[in-house]
Write a structure and sequence with these properties.
This protein is an alpha/beta fold and 301 residues long. The protein contains twelve helices and 15 strands. It has a six-stranded mixed beta sheet, with helices on one face. Strands 13-12-11-15-14 form a five-stranded mixed beta sheet, sandwiched between helices. It has a two-stranded antiparallel ribbon with strand order 7-10.
Length: 301
């Protein structure tokens, strides 16, 4: 999950640093210039998987309101007061992962997690949360409400409630990958396996790999992908740099100096398709990997 932490005050920035140290995430501050922050939110709303606002809830609501579309596609949005007393799951609690992230942050900074989704309040199973954790996408939004309402009433469900049908569609898992020159197939295999284990998915769930053009002749990488029976797409430096700019991706100065682009794995994955990161850029032995759940066609959004 790629996380943006947004703050407009010095006190908020100090808390943002504490949060970033615990869960990762890029900090963005526009001082007290709320108009600049509002414009910035418009720019990044669909580019990050989660937005964490360290400010008043009203400010956050006004900044995201024009961009909210659907629980199936909106990023997770969390609001934290500047004292770090309350962590509020505001948007996309289940599919976007805001509820789980809220609990994680609250535990880290010793705050009160505020979660208001009915199934969570009643400590019940929810269809959309179940789908998100398995890398599935509900494609009938109206049916989510019907199924979850039945669960809250205590009814037995088989993912069919009356005339409401909820389809859970597998999402493609894209692996963006970069590696040092001459990295062996064994090291690449171990890194990919470790990355998939971190998101509780088998390596076979990966649909396609992606990297930078200069890796076209990287024997260990090519042999690994071939052995797995998958394809790999390669993208030029200019195309990757466009994604880095559009998605505000963090860069490595060392890698940029050597190959002309400072973020291979995340930029390559996003060059294949738009989606949400199951695993942001993560370093292993000589290998850097990012895993992206591709967005699927959304029905009734």
């Amino acid at each position: 999950m790629r996380i943006a932490i947004l703050t407009v005050t010095d006190n908020g920035y100090a808390l943002a640093e504490k949060i970033s140290a615990g869960i990762g995430g890029q900090i963005f501050s526009k001082g007290r210039d709320f108009e600049r922050m509002k414009n910035f939110v418009e720019e990044i709303f669909t580019k990050f998987d989660a937005l964490i606002f360290v400010c008043a809830a009203g400010i956050a609501v006004r900044m995201i309101a024009p961009h909210v579309v659907s629980k199936l596609s909106d990023p997770a949005v969390i609001v934290i007061d500047e004292r770090g007393r309350n962590v509020i799951s505001l948007l996309s609690g289940h599919i976007g992962g805001a509820n789980d992230l809220t609990l994680k942050i609250a535990a880290q900074i010793d705050a009160n997690p505020v979660i208001t989704t009915a199934t969570d309040v009643e400590e019940k199973f929810s269809a959309d949360n179940f789908a998100a954790r398995l890398g599935l996408m509900p494609v009938n939004k109206d049916a989510i409400k019907a199924v979850n309402s039945a669960i809250l009433r205590g009814e037995e469900i088989f993912f069919t409630v009356g005339n409401a049908r909820l389809d859970l569609t597998p999402r493609n898992l894209i692996c963006g990958i970069g590696c040092k020159r001459g990295t062996s197939i064994e090291k690449i295999s171990r890194a990919v396996s470790a990355a998939c284990t971190m998101i509780n998915q088998p390596v076979e769930r990966i649909k396609i790999f992606a990297s930078v053009d200069v890796k076209r002749d990287e024997t260990g990488l090519i042999d690994f992908v071939k052995k797995l029976g998958r394809d790999i797409k390669f993208f030029g430096v200019d195309e990757l740099n466009e994604k880095i700019s559009a998605y505000k991706l963090a860069e490595s100065d060392f890698v940029k100096k050597n190959i002309g682009v400072g973020n291979v794995c995340e930029a390559a994955a996003l060059s294949v398709a738009h989606g949400k990161f199951a695993l942001p850029k993560t370093k292993f032995d000589s290998v850097t990997i990012a895993l992206l759940w591709e967005d699927v066609a959304l029905a009734n959004t």
